[in-house]
């Protein structure tokens, strides 16, 4: 019984943890590179460039290992080992850019304000004349969808959160009931064990008293016989 209660409690805690953390999962604006075409390499010598993506204030930079040749459209599925590029906040923008690694000072293809609201149907196209043309992908950054207004999406999000909150309340109620029942059963078993221990102690004490009385009677008999 206790094992079953523990398993139910553990499963409920895992489910509750998942639901509480699902908001953070849904709200993560992960950005990947869908395609890029460069018009220049910023190289004076005929060597392959090292091009990377970076955002201000972040230590990590993302090197684009395949992007080496101009006027070639490179496409990606978002599952490459170097993806994703970055994560965008819900409402704020990041200052990001595409750069070329250099010995003295890195060359800048372009820097711009990277915002979740710039994405349409999960895609954002960025073009800089004579530099590059890139498409970025962020499904959760979608600012507008065909035939779907922002208010309706907001209502859907609120409705989803309401359902999640109801489920969380139900799980908390079930867990509370399981804990209460487990505590009640544990209390009853503790009282029963204490009662058994007390009965055993009384039984042992009774035997000791009987033994003492028998010893006293034997002593009296011995005294009488001696007289």
Summarize the structure.
Keywords: Membrane, Signal, Transmembrane, Transmembrane helix. The chain is of the alpha+beta class and 227 residues long.
Defining traits:
DUF7953; membrane; transmembrane; signal; Immunoglobulin-like; 227 residues
List the helices and strands and how they pair.
Layout: H1 2-26, E1 29-38, E2 51-55, E3 62-63, E4 74-75, E5 86-88, E6 94-100, E7 107-114, E8 123-128, E9 132-137, H2 150-226
Antiparallel strand pairs: 1-4, 1-5, 1-9, 2-3, 2-6, 6-7, 8-9
Domain DUF7953: 29-139
Organism: Zostera marina (Eelgrass)
Protein name: DUF7953 domain-containing protein
Q: If you had to describe this structure to a student in words, what would you say it looks like?
A:
With 227 residues, the protein is α+β, with helices and mostly antiparallel strands. The protein is 45% helix and 22% strand. The protein has two helices and nine strands; from the N terminus they run H-E-E-E-E-E-E-E-E-E-H. It has helices at 2-26, 150-226; strands spanning 29-38, 51-55, 62-63, 74-75, 86-88, 94-100, 107-114, 123-128, 132-137. Strands 1, 4, 5, 8 and 9 form a five-stranded antiparallel sheet that branches. Strands 3-2-6-7 form a four-stranded antiparallel sheet, with no helix packed on it. Helix 1 runs antiparallel to helix 2 (150-226). It is rod-shaped and about 130 Å long. The model is unreliable at 22-26 and 144-156 (pLDDT under 50).
